Amino acid sequence: MQSKITAWLDDAEIIAELAKRIRGKRLAMNCSQAQLAYETGLSKLSIQKIENGHNMQLSSFIRVLRYFAELDKLEPLLTINASPELLYKNKQQRQRLRARKSSSD
After folding, report:
1. 29: DSSP letter
2. What is the pLDDT of residue 78?
3. Residue 82 CB neighbour total at 10 angstroms
């Protein structure tokens, strides 16, 4: 059973869970590490590192997701649902205010 990825997990635990899921998905597809490496354009060593929970480049993660036909799962992650007017207003509010020179200068 796979663990749920939540905010309560630290980065290492999330990476370990992602590694476990990638390995599980590869095995479920009856795909070897060498075949996954070939299909994604990564090295076999890179696939081994990913499955062992080493930090991976985002581009490597994207290649693996693309091969697994799971890339569409990223779409809802950073979707902006606000109107352009609201985004502009928030941007204006977040602009840094410059310190004023004191009158004693």
Report:
1. T
2. 75
3. 10
What's the maximum distance between 2 C-alpha atoms anywhere in the chain?
Answer: 75
Distances (CA, A) of 102 to 4, 77, 98: 54, 45, 12
- pTM of this structure: 0.71
What pLDDT digit, counting tens, does each position of 14-40 carry? 999 999 999 999 999 999 999 999 999
Q: Cβ neighbours of residue 46 under 8 Å, at least 6 residues apart? A: 37, 56, 60
Domains of the chain are 1-75 (1.10.260.40)
Helix runs in the chain, H state only: 11-28, 33-40, 44-51, 58-67, 84-94
Terminal-to-terminal C-alpha distance of the chain: 67
52-73 pLDDT, tens digit each: 999 889 999 999 999 999 999 9
